[in-house]
Amino acid sequence: MPQPPGLNDAERRLWNAFPTGATVVLGEDRPAGPLPERIVRAEIITRLLLGAGESRTGAVAAVRLRGAYVTGKLDVSGGVVEHELLLSDCRLVNEPDFSNAETRQLRLAACRMPGFDGGGLRTDGYLSLSDSEIEGEIRLPRAQLSGGLRMNRTRVTASAPDKWAVFGGGLVVDVGAFIRDAEITGGVRFVGARMNGGLFMERTTLSNPGRIALDAQNMIVEDAAEFSNGFKAFGTVRLRSARFHGILSFSRGYLDATDPARMALHASHIQADELLLWPVEKIRGRVNLQYSRIDMIMDDPSIWPDELYLNGTTYQTLRGGEFKDRLSWVARDKEFHLQPYEQLAAWYHSIGHDDLARKVQLAKLRARRRRLNPVGRAWNHLLDWTVGFGYRPWLAFAWFAALLAVGTTVFSIEQPRPVKPGNELPSFHALIYTLDLLIPLDTFGQQLSYDAVNWSRWVAYGLVTTGWVLATALIAGVTRVLRPN
Predict the structure, then answer these.
(1) pLDDT value of residue 184
(2) Are 124 and 187 found together in one domain?
(3) What is the CA radius of gyration of the chain?
(4) Mean pLDDT, all residues of the chain
(5) Residue 38 sits in which domain range?
(6) Domain count, the chain
(7) Are residue 77 and residue 121 in the same domain, yes or no?
(8) Are residues 30 and 131 in the same domain?
(9) Which of 228, 298, 390, 465 lies at a 20 to 30 A Cα distance from 426?
(10) Which helix (H) or strand (E) holds 304?
């Protein structure tokens, strides 16, 4: 097809280079303004992409342009693009529109533009916006990128606080989404996205203070999700109900909700093979992991937030922190729940630390006190002091031995008198008499045969009462252990 009339020199060079896919260099850097020798109209690029140019046998036609000032709107929405597009170091005056288009590989590298519309875009290669500066929104809802997404070192600034800087709801990315070393001001929305080759956001900064920095609810990631090695989020990272078939890593990252009352990480109902929650500093804001299923959690006490929600969370392995740290870990929920303690105790039991599992159960019942009424709290304290809620029955025997020693000493000094004098009475023995008082049943016949006198009578009453209390506490504690629910 012959060249259309009215082409300037730069456009003529681009039209002639298209059949062989040669790169047209109009400058070595991105133009700051509309220099006449660098101006290329977007409609010319559009016409070439949609088949207006000639192709040559033995060569692959493509649009490759560097250092251009592109005027007008590059609009191939709804079209079928059979040729690769490479724009590098270009300035696009208007937002390119690739919505609902089918394209080959798209590369807009180191370009400056007021946004990018790729809603419903389907690429046979990858989409690259690496090193570009975008003063507006990137829209990729329902896009399908067969060759991956590259936004390394990209700078995106949303046009308004209520706008998403990157909007990719329902986005499907094969091969991998690489958004490393980027700076994104405004929220990123990947709700319902599917990252089949992983999501890599190392050293990227997401800044949306007081709002959602990353909304990735129901996202599915095959392979790794790396929010690590310098990743920073100022605002909430929301991963509710996401699925990670691999590692979810915040290793050496930074999470700051900018408001202690806000969620720094909302990751409830997620599934992950491994969660590496080990940022460089303490998480600023709350963290929610409720009802999540994670095979392995690796973290450290130094990074735990003041409020951590673990109710319903299940895991197979824990790494990081000592036993006392894990007790603090499950106690950081302001609302008491049984399940985090039960899960932690079950984990210690599964690795052979039954003694630590019992200590977790004790901590659970002690933490429960604040929800009880005064009578319940008093009974809770009694069970704790006497039998350790049944998990430390030796306490009851220790109390019993101490009281036995006291009673034996008292009744050796102040011997009781016989109830019915006569030769048929059993011989008095202070130890046996004390045992009879402590044991709720008249086992040895001494209690019915002898009656304490004077001040020792009050000791006898105390021993009888204490015996009943110890027996009741022991039965209640053992029953609690055997039937913990």
Answers:
(1) 98
(2) yes
(3) 37
(4) 86
(5) 1-85
(6) 3
(7) no
(8) no
(9) 465
(10) none
**211-232 average pLDDT score:** 97
> For residue 332, is it within any domain?
no
pLDDT beyond 50 at 269: yes
Torsion over CA of 81, 85, 87 and 88, rounded to 10 degrees? 150
* Distance (Å, whole) CA 71 – CA 427: 116
Instruction: Tell whether 72 and 162 lie within a shared domain.
Output: no
Q: Are β-strands 417-418 and 450-451 bridged in parallel, bridged antiparallel, or unpaired?
A: antiparallel
Both 316 and 254 in a single domain? yes
Q: Which residues pair with 188 in a beta bridge?
A: 166, 214
Decide if 141 contacts 113 (C-beta within 8 A).
Answer: no
pLDDT of residue 81: 95
Question: Does residue 38 sit in the same domain as residue 180?
Answer: no
Tokens of 36: 């006449």
Encode burial over 285-321: b for 16+ CB neighbours within 10 A, e otherwise. bbbbbbbbebeebbbeeebbbebbbbbbbebeebebb
Distance CA 483, CA 8 (A): 87
Question: pLDDT tens digits for 431-449?
Answer: 776 666 667 666 666 666 6
Looking at the domain assignment, is residue 449 inside a domain? yes
CB neighbour burial string for 195-228, b if at least 16 within 10 angstroms, e if fewer: bbbbbbbbbbbbbbeebbbbbbbbbbbbbbbbbb
Query: Are 450 and 301 within one domain?
Result: no
Q: Range with the lowest mean pLDDT among 59-63, 211-215, 250-254, 380-384?
A: 380-384
The token duo for 398 is 């220790």
Contact 146, 175 (CB under 8 A): yes
DSSP bridge partners of 222: 245
Residue 334 lies in a domain: no
200-211, pLDDT tens digit by residue? 999 999 999 999
Residue 182 and residue 199 in contact, taking contact as beta carbons nearer than 8 Å: no
